[in-house]
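Researcher: Quick test of sequence recovery. Tokens follow.
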């Protein structure tokens, strides 16, 4: 049996005459250098919209497009088949189940790895539907987390398990008038970042359910949170640890406890940079109202 060759998004966009081979080659180099997926790099650079990618893929792959997922009633049995972490990291969302098949919204249907994983874990056929990343992220917020995706200007997310340390960080920032969102661990921080789309994240290095580097890497995997600056809070002042933090892509490093004036000034600097910030990551660390099922 002949193995079906994997279709690449760049090839699709060339065939659809949306991009030239030279531009695709250059974008691939940028994506490799910044350790992002090809489609994410295109959207980040503003060369193509999520809608344009969806249309090109729909034509090339003969998949249906689904829009405004939040208007659908999604059955719990479908949501249970795909964890929120899997949905978030792969930009997929379960739409429903019929006759042993799982309808799956995907921002990148050329990602055959996640399809294979879900086929193996659910023992179901996966029927791909194409959706924009924005639609999928809104659906994850609504159906998994119970809130609508929202952004609050100059909001700051503080992720720290120790309540005393967390209060020492939150209090001076709140006194300066910042909207501060609190999270107690990486899982909570993951959900709060998705819900609030903060302008800045301050995170403890170690947490019961993970570490700052893994938390940072996960949020960098999504276009909406990729450019949020991260400040690492550490309970030990180490030059080696500080150097490693910058090497891994953190915007800043603050040994704790820190003076209020130090904390506030570092936060002001990070917020001034804003979403134009692109973290450097070394490679070693890196529409219808009813769903129309295809045959």
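Model:
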């Amino acid at each position: 049996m002949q193995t079906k060759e994997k279709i690449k998004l760049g090839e699709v966009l060339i065939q659809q005459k949306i991009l030239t081979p030279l531009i695709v080659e250059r974008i691939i180099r940028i994506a490799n250098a910044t350790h992002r997926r090809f489609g994410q790099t295109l959207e980040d650079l503003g060369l193509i919209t999520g809608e344009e990618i969806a249309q090109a893929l729909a034509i090339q792959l003969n998949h249906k497009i689904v829009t405004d997922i939040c208007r659908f009633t999604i059955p719990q049995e479908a949501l249970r088949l795909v964890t929120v972490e899997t949905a978030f990291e792969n930009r997929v969302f379960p739409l429903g189940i019929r006759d042993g098949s799982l309808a799956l919204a995907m921002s990148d249907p050329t990602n055959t790895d996640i399809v294979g994983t879900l086929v193996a874990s659910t023992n179901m056929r996966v029927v791909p539907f194409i959706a924009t990343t924005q639609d999928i992220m809104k659906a994850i917020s609504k159906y998994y987390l119970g809130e609508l995706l929202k952004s609050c200007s100059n909001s700051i997310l503080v992720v720290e398990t120790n309540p005393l340390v967390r209060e020492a960080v939150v209090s001076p920032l709140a006194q300066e008038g910042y909207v501060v969102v609190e999270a107690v661990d990486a899982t909570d921080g993951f959900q709060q970042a998705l819900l609030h789309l903060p302008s800045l994240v301050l995170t403890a290095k170690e947490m019961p359910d993970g570490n700052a580097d893994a938390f940072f890497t996960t949020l960098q995997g999504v276009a909406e949170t990729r450019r949020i600056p991260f400040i690492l809070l550490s309970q030990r002042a180490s030059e080696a640890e500080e150097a490693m933090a910058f090497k891994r892509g953190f915007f800043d490093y603050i040994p704790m406890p820190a003076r209020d004036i130090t904390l506030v000034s570092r936060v002001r600097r990070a917020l001034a940079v804003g979403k134009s910030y692109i973290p450097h990551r070394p490679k070693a660390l890196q529409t219808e109202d009813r769903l129309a099922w295809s045959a």
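The CA atoms of residues 205 and 212 lie 5 Å apart.
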